[in-house]
Each structure stands twice: as C-alpha cells, then as structure tokens.
Amino acid sequence: MSAEETKKRILDAAERLFASQGFHNTSLRDITREARVNIASVNYHFGTREALVREVVLRRLVPVNRDRLRLLESLRHAASRGPDDISSRPTVREILVAFLEPSIKFISTEPAANDFVRIMGQGMADPDENIRKLFMEQVRPVFNTMAELLSMALPSIPRPVIHMRLHCFIGAFAHWMRLMGSDSLLSGTNMFPNSPEEVMKELLNFCEAGMEAPL
Amino acid sequence: MSAEETKKRILDAAERLFASQGFHNTSLRDITREARVNIASVNYHFGTREALVREVVLRRLVPVNRDRLRLLESLRHAASRGPDDISSRPTVREILVAFLEPSIKFISTEPAANDFVRIMGQGMADPDENIRKLFMEQVRPVFNTMAELLSMALPSIPRPVIHMRLHCFIGAFAHWMRLMGSDSLLSGTNMFPNSPEEVMKELLNFCEAGMEAPL
DNA sequence: GTCTATAGATTGATAGAC
DNA sequence: GTCTATCAATCTATAGAC
User: What are phi and psi for residue B163, nearest 5 degrees?
Assistant: First the structure.
C-alpha cells in the first residue's frame, strides 16, 4: 500500500474514534484495528501518538480558520476605508457570519465533518493542556480579529464586555458542535434532523441579539 | 483516622485533580498520593474508581440542582394562579436567574467551588458516555422545567426554537464554568479577576437578549 | 481500617526479520 | 513499508498480614 494511502486511513480512523470516544480513551491499537493497518505503522508514519493527534486536528482546522480569517480581513479592509463612515462599519451579523460560514461550508462539503465537528467541540473543553493549546493556537487569531471588529461595530460597548460576550458566543458554538450527531439533552427527544444551516441560523439570531444587548 | 475523614480527603483530592487534569488523566494513585491515604483505601471506601467519580460529582451537583428546581417550581406555581394574566407570567430573566443564582451561592460559599465548577464544565462535554450521563441525569429535569417556563414567557416563539436557544444558554454557561480560574482565550490577557457575580451578570444580559430575539 | 505486595490487563514505543 | 514479538511502564483491583 502507498504511504499516503496508509496515512490517510490512519487519520480517518483516528478522527472517527476520537469523535466517538474522545482523545484519551482511544488507544493506538483501537486506531490501527479500525484502520486495518499494522500497529507499528503509526510510529513509522507519525512518530508518536501526540504527533498523530496533532495531524488529525490540523488537517481540518487549518483550512477552515484560513477561510474565516480571509472573510474577517475583508470586513476589516472595507471598514478601514472610512473609519468615521457609519455605513462602512461591519455589522455584528456580518462578523458572526464570517466565523460561521466556513463551518457550514465544511460541514456540507466534507462527509466526515460530523466527526470533526465533535472533536472540535470537545477539544476546546479538554482538560489536557496540550490538547487545548493545539486548538487555541489555531483559533486565537480568529477570535482576536473578531473582538477588534466587534468593537468597531459596537462602539458604545466597552472592550472587556465585548470579550465576555464573545466568550458567550464561543461557548454556544462549541456546545452546538458537540451536540451535532448526538442526542439532545432535553426531554430525550433528538432535536435533529435540523439541518446545520437551521442550527446556525438560530445560533446567529441568538448571538446577534446577545452581542447587541443593552448594558 | 476516622472513616469519614478518609472519605472526605479522598473526595477533596479527587475533586482538585479532576479539575486540573480531567477525569481520564487522573489515576487512583494520583488521588491517594494527593490525599495522603493508602492506595487500597479507595477500594475499601468506594468500591471502584467509577463509584468514586460518581460521588465526587453528586456531592456538589445534587444540592445545587435541588435549589434550582425549587426556585423554578416557585415561578411555575406563581404563574399557574392566572395563566391568562400576563402579569403573573415568569419573565425570561427570572427563569435564567433561577438557574444561575444557586451557582452563584455555591461559588461564593464553598472554597472548593472553583474546582467543581471546572469539573462541571468539562463533564458536560466529556466524550465518555458514562460521564456525560452522570451529569445529564441530574440536569435534565432542570432543563425541562426551564423549557416549559420559557414557553410561557415567550408564547410567540415555537417550542423547538425555545429548545435551541436554551442550548445556546447551556453552552455559554458551560463555557464560562470551564473558563473560571483558567486563562482567557483572547489575546493572552487573563480576563479575571472579574467576580463570579460580574460574569453572571454579563451572561445574563447576553442570554436574556438572545432568548427574546426576534424570529 | 490501613497497609504491602502483587495479579492481570493494557498502554506507547521499538527492534529486527522480511 | 509492513509485520511479529516484546519491552518497560502504567493502570485498577484485590488478597492477606497487621
């Protein structure tokens, strides 16, 4: 088998298992059994378990965050033309959409998106500092840019409050990522099949209003 | 040493370590070393590791949720007097406060609250089904009651949308629980020392507006 | 109730044949 | 590149002396 094929099978298997069992409960043996490759091939292709985890995460996260940053930067660029011109200011909704739309695109394009979306949701809440850092390093520039743009969109709201509200958004988003494909908490009814687009629309309505809430 | 003293030392040590390292990365040896008791005493007092985890969680969660339900039921009782009387309807803010206030009380009363708050935040996102169930079983009746009351407070909003918005609230809340005592994601600046009361006030402002957002 | 000692299983990593 | 075999470390749980 080609090297690339083997690597891909390991990454795909690890992604599936991490999503359903978590990082810490999934052994290399679980992964190689699921991928139907030899146990030693992980070490050959990735070096260590940690390096494999890293590649599983970055393979998906890097392109999505690049899209997010590109959209956010174009909002900032439009705004910088006329900082005093209210009409050129980004709106709260535009900023949130710039974050959410790459997620939507990813979810509706990539068949394994459900798995990664759950990995993303739990990774941001992982107690293991190394795991959390892996996510945060990628996501931090996106959040910083969002905070700046939100300050422009909501000049009457102090920056610390912007940050706290952004955290509310992040928390709601991560929670929805975790729920995707799993059972609802509420009354045992599975709230899905709501399409990802529907979920995102509701998340957007909720968080837009929350961001603009009076002090 | 008395049995109760030993049990308490084990529970306290486990709570500290679960908060900082997570459930899955903390071994019984870590716990007994931190508690300064013998490794075999865990089995003697709790039976299995899983039973210990369960007691660590329930010791804190049960009384807080009892308070939440009591406050929510009193809102429902007041409303049931005059279902057509708008003035007797619970407000969104009252419902959210009924959920949040017992958390505040717990946080400002109990010295180890910070640890448990982080445990709570990660437990609701844990990929291990047993862990998640442990939390969900306790929290489910609270969420169901909240959904009912929110439907009364917001009669124009369809029940599925109420559920989705409640999930936004839950996600934001859990995220804040996780952040308590840890570093901020944003620009490396630690957003704390904001008091828990301040955090809750902002969470409340954000989520009240989100709940009442137009369709 | 507390302790030592250990059973029995599982883990990540690697050496070396092919 | 793939495989078998194995090492060294770690884990939970428990038997049995005190």
Answer: -60, -45
